[in-house]
Design a protein that fits this description.
By secondary structure, the chain is mostly beta strands. It has a domain at 129-345. The protein is built from 4 helices and 15 strands. The chain has helices at residues 2-20, 46-50, 55-67, 105-108; strands at 25-31, 35-41, 98-101, 117-120, 129-144, 164-175, 180-194, 200-204, 209-213, 220-240, 264-286, 289-296, 304-314, 317-324, 337-345. The protein has an 8-stranded antiparallel beta barrel. Strand 13 and strand 14 form a beta hairpin. The N and C termini lie far apart (98 Å).
């Protein structure tokens, strides 16, 4: 009988020891390459308690101590990390929201005060495609057999100041390698050729385009120009030393998000355009009143233009240069003029 009692008591002690040694439920969260965070839960009732803790505040305090190489325990009591349930929101944050992460207060004095590091939860690396809207503002002119027509005092000689070039382009930047990109663009542009001689007018006959002076002498001419509008496609391979998938822009406020080294970039590529409209405009004053005339015509202009575009940029400023390889007018119908434009891209 005593032997049976001893066996029963031993069995009870063994069961108690096994119950005590039962392993806890463990969750391991890997962080980076060599680090991990371990959650060990022994009592499932503790899960309800964990829901009331502010783990963001706890992690912030813990990371601050690790960065300061302080291995002592946290000074705050665990109750200090309880959530304020009256202000708690049950709405989850969207996965694709942007998070701005400032550098630690202790390190900020040794770094650029306005530098930010942006990251996206759903994307570990830089985006392969980035869309932007660009505005080209500059001047345009043309060359006749490689020379400006000014020397021959031609009626189609252009006045540089006032001959504005405007381009509106929707651009898709595609990452090919770490520092090599393709910028695909589609948009519209306007050549504005402001003639030096304000009396210059344009007409045409069966043989070609005709430039002549307006014969009126009783009025004062103040402007005469030819405007040509094109829809364009372009493809410019870009070498970007900064290696950024996105290009900073003065309108989107990205300038301060880029490294102090900046982002120097350079590229050359082709473009092609199709003429949408063309017209002449002349302005004069008559009896103290301002008068103007518009005449829409093709004036034997080439319907298609094609050429090369060069871009050089640093941070949020780009300089462009476009040169048309074909003539402005149809061969044999007008002077052999190759148009070009240059300016800045915003």
């Amino acid at each position: 009988m005593n032997r049976i009692r001893i066996i029963l008591v031993s069995a009870l002690f063994l069961l108690a020891a096994l119950a005590k040694a039962q392993p806890a439920d463990t969750i391991v969260v890997k962080v980076g390459k060599e680090s991990k965070v371990i959650f060990s839960i022994k009592d499932k009732q503790d899960l309800e308690t964990l829901k009331h803790y502010n783990f963001q505040a706890l992690m912030d305090d813990m990371l601050r101590k690790l960065e300061q190489r302080d291995t002592s325990s946290l000074k705050k009591q665990s109750s200090a990390y309880l959530k304020d349930t009256t202000q708690q929101s049950t709405k989850p944050a969207p996965e694709d929201t942007w998070i701005r992460d400032r550098r630690d207060e202790d390190d900020r004095a040794n770094d650029w005060a306005d530098e930010y590091r942006w990251s996206r939860r759903s994307d570990k690396y830089s985006r392969r495609f980035y869309h932007s809207f660009n505005i080209d503002l500059g001047m345009n002119n043309y060359l006749e057999n490689g020379h400006f027509p000014d020397g021959g005092n031609q009626l189609y000689t252009v006045k540089p100041w006032g001959s504005w070039y405007v381009g509106l382009t929707s651009t898709l930047r595609t990452k090919v390698t770490n520092k090599f990109y393709l910028e695909w663009g589609a948009g519209v542009s306007w050549y504005n050729f402001k003639f030096s001689n304000y009396k210059t007018q344009i007409s045409k006959d069966g043989n070609g385009v005709i430039f002549y002076e307006n014969p009126r002498t009783d009025v004062e001419f103040t402007k005469s120009k030819l405007t040509v509008c094109y829809i364009n496609l372009s493809m410019v391979p870009m070498f970007d030393l900064g290696g950024y998938s996105r290009k900073p822009n003065v309108f989107n406020g990205d300038r301060l998000n880029f490294d102090r080294r900046g982002s120097f970039r350079i590229g050359v590529g082709p473009y092609v355009g199709y003429r949408l409209d063309s017209y002449t405009k002349q302005v004069w004053e008559e009896s103290g009143d301002k008068q103007k005339s518009h005449y829409h015509d093709n004036y034997y202009l080439n319907n298609v233009r094609y050429g090369l575009r060069a871009q050089i940029g640093f941070r949020d400023t780009d300089i462009f240069f476009n040169y048309d390889l074909n003539g402005l007018f149809i061969d044999g119908k007008g002077p052999k003029l190759n148009a070009f434009s240059f300016g800045i891209t915003l």
